[in-house]
Amino acid sequence: MTHQDFTTALRGPETLVTPVIHVLDAGQALRNLDTVDAAGCPGAFLINHDFSMEEFLPILKEIRAARPDLWLGVNFLDQPGDIAFPILGQLARDGCQIDAYWADDARIDERVEKQDIADDIARIRKQSGWTGVYLGGVAFKKQRPVPEEQYARAARFSVPYLDVVTTSGIATGHEADLSKIETFRNAIGDAPLALASGITPENAAEYCGLVNCFLVATGINHPGDFYNIDPARLDTLLAITRKQGETV
Questions:
Q1: What whole-number distance in Å separates Cα of residue 118 and Cα of residue 101?
Q2: Angle at which helices 53-66 and 26-39 pack, to 10 degrees?
Q3: What's the domain range around 73?
Q4: What average pLDDT does this structure show over 219-234?
Q5: If you ran DSSP here, which 8-state letter would residue 229 be given?
Q6: Euclidean distance between CA atoms 91 and 93, whole angstroms
């Protein structure tokens, strides 16, 4: 799947499922990516919870060399776009194309009209030469708290800067309040919206009509396992999103 194919699919009736793999090493990541590919997901995100970004880069290159055609997104833990985009641009020049970047914090400030930091990130993204899809966290877990009454403003401000507006519940594994997602959807109109915490096969149907993409990890992993996808739970989640896509 190309960047353009993914962007087009986001506009379709089915909520996309892009599993998030907490990487330990290349072998563990590749085994999980094969599970994702076999299930028919468009691709997956890789994240470095257990080591530094610098240690992550050679692992990414190894994974990309082993799976040159697989759609791969990345989250460099706690790194905003101004740090990530130059690195992604260099990776691409080195032959390691990353298809999407998900930043925990898009640096949108709902308290002010002028988005100086987001403007700087947009400039750095353009200068980097990286051409992938940008998902940015807005009112996102573990970031500066945004008051509920400012959700709509934060979401609306983020649209010009992001390919996919991305939000979450209060923490990893915690489902988002449905009213928050409804507020985001109303604020951003038909712009793509992703949800990045708390999705499970048991609750996914509540969000399908509001969200274009699920970024999901613990909700489809083996019980008590932070690192490995349970193929049965992934298949169950996909059955729900595909059914929703057929009935819209």
A1: 15
A2: 50
A3: 3-247
A4: 96
A5: B
A6: 5
